[in-house]
Amino acid sequence: MTPPQARTWSQRGRTPVVRVRGRSRRRVSIAALTCYKPGRRSRLIYRPRRDDGRRDGRMSFSWRDYRDLLIAAHQQLGGPIVIIRDHLDVRKAADLREWAAAQDWLTIHHLPPYAPDLNPVEGIWSLLRRGWLSNVAFSTPEHLVQRIRRGLRHIQYRSHPIDGCLAETGLTIRPA
Fold first, then answer.
1. pLDDT in tens, the chain (176 residues)
2. For residue 27, how many other CB atoms are within 10 A of its CB?
């Protein structure tokens, strides 16, 4: 819950100070999909997960959480999905691979290892960190989750930032 730092302006001689109460061991994880289709507006589908200390000792997403996100995306988009994803360990879990292989509506391709510059979702995280999460001292984990949701909702309802994140990777969408 330590806030990222960003530059700001203030009156001369009055340096702004953001007080941070203390560090928390609690964690918030977010999984997101940027969705592109030629001739349609870009979409962002995301799920935050707050570590509440109750779920099998896991502080981040499990393969079931990613499966549920993919199912929700399939229902929202209403068609087959091609996923191009990075090499996060949980996404390579055997159970998730088996489940994905059984789905006829899902095709998965992998980005090369250590290539975050090819992942448009990294651009979303950058927008969120530089805008909605910078220079804010979060008092509670709920405050952090609320701010994350507000920032992602702001990005989600405007397709231009999502398109910009794809353009920044140098990748393009090719009609089927």
1. 555 666 777 888 888 776 666 555 667 888 899 999 888 899 999 998 877 666 555 667 888 888 999 999 999 999 899 988 887 776 668 888 899 999 999 998 888 888 888 999 999 999 998 888 887 877 777 888 899 999 999 999 999 999 999 999 988 887 76
2. 13
Q: What is the crossing angle of helices 120-130 and 141-156, to 10°?
A: 120
CATH of domain 28-169: 3.30.420.10
Q: What backbone torsions phi and psi does residue 129 show, to the nearest 5 degrees?
A: -65, -45
Model confidence, pTM: 0.77
CA distances to 15, 33, 41, 62, 154 from 159, in Å: 36, 13, 6, 29, 10
- Cα 125 to Cα 15, 32, 118, 146, 160, distances in angstroms: 28, 9, 13, 16, 15
**Both structure tokens of 83:** 């996923």
Taking CA atoms, 58 is separated from 33, 69, 132, in Å, by 22, 17, 27
Structural domain boundaries in the chain: 28-169
